[in-house]
Write a structure and sequence with these properties.
With 240 residues, this protein is an all-alpha fold.
Amino acid sequence: MGLWQRFSLLFKAKAGKALDRVEDPRETLDYSYQRQLEMHQKVKRGLLDVATARKRLEMQGEQLQARAAKLHDQAKRAMELGKEDLAREALTRRATIEPELEGLKTQHAALQAEEAKLTEASRKLQTHLDALRVRKETIKATYTAAEAQTKIGEALSGISTEMGDIGAAVQRAEDKTATMQARAGAIDELLASGALDDLSTSRDALDAELGRAVASSEVEAELAKLKAELPAPEPPKAIE
């Protein structure tokens, strides 16, 4: 296989796939049914034309037969009157009508045969159209249902993925919350056992203790100052 043939096959394959993606089988079915319906209409019009031509031939035949009968009566009447020449003329004219009647009979038979063929073709086409209509509507309904089911499935698939993401986020939040709760509980236990000093409480106690020490030192210094300012006590008098 040559390079050009391979390219041609590849192009046809890709074109077929593209057409398959674009083509809506419901539209294709409707189009095919419409074409069959148009064909049936053409057959029915043809049948009507043939039937009309057959009827026209029948009317012409009836007119020729009536004319032939009239000429025969005229020839008989002429013979009764002794006018043989007129009788001969009437019979001669009547004789020319016979080939025309035979020709009309031949054409009439052909048209009858054609009419029978078209009638059978129209009947078969009508049967085919009825079956095709039922089949195409069934296929269209099935395709529409499958299309709806596919869209629902795709939507549910998207929802499932989204719900999965939401579930994972909720699980992470729950895990972080549990970790934070465990950490808070551990800190409370360490504080209660004294293994972990409450820095704010220790700082306040130390400040208070230092404050008390400073205040006590200042009190003692003030007391010492006051003592120094007191007059010296008088010595006790001797007993006489």
